[in-house]
Write a structure and sequence with these properties.
This protein has about 140 residues and is mainly alpha-helical. The protein has one domain (about 5-135). It has 6 helices and 2 strands; from the N terminus they run ααααααββ. Helix 2 (about 20-35) crosses helix 3 (about 45-60). The termini are far apart. The mean pLDDT is about 90.
């Protein structure tokens, strides 16, 4: 019988793989829950579907500082989410199907495009003067 709590398992996991913080694992779990709740009926989600849910959840939670928050947790690319998922699977804290693979998290999205670009000012031209104007 395993008497370890999930918190103890996460602490041990962070000791084994020091690339990511406990915050990264907790965020991933919240993003997974967010993704599943957004479905018509709860079901297993694959890597690409989870990546989309992570992107939406992160933007809704952290807005323009999303990349900064993720980097504080050691997350710099979509493959990091895959590593987090499979670390949790290996620890027995998440399940997977036979079809699930770390490769499901590549290709992912570019973090600049996904997390920074939505908040950058856009250049628009006014009809009267033909000048570019920064808008949000």
């Amino acid at each position: 019988m395993n008497t370890q709590t999930p918190e103890n398992q996460l602490e041990a996991l962070v000791q084994r793989d020091q690339r990511y913080t406990i915050g990264a694992y907790l965020f991933l779990r919240e993003a997974l829950d967010y993704t599943v709740r957004s479905l018509e009926k709860p079901r297993h989600v694959g890597g690409q579907e989870l990546l989309d849910g992570i992107r939406k959840y992160a933007l809704s939670e952290f807005g323009p500082i999303t990349r900064r928050v993720l980097s504080e947790w050691g997350i710099y690319a979509c493959i990091d989410f895959g590593n987090l998922v499979f670390n949790l699977v290996d620890e027995g804290l998440l399940g997977k199907t036979d079809e699930d693979s770390i490769d499901d998290f590549t290709p992912g999205y570019d973090f600049e495009e996904a997390f920074s670009k939505p908040f950058l000012a856009k250049k628009t031209k006014t009809k009267e003067q033909g000048k570019s104007v920064d808008t949000l």
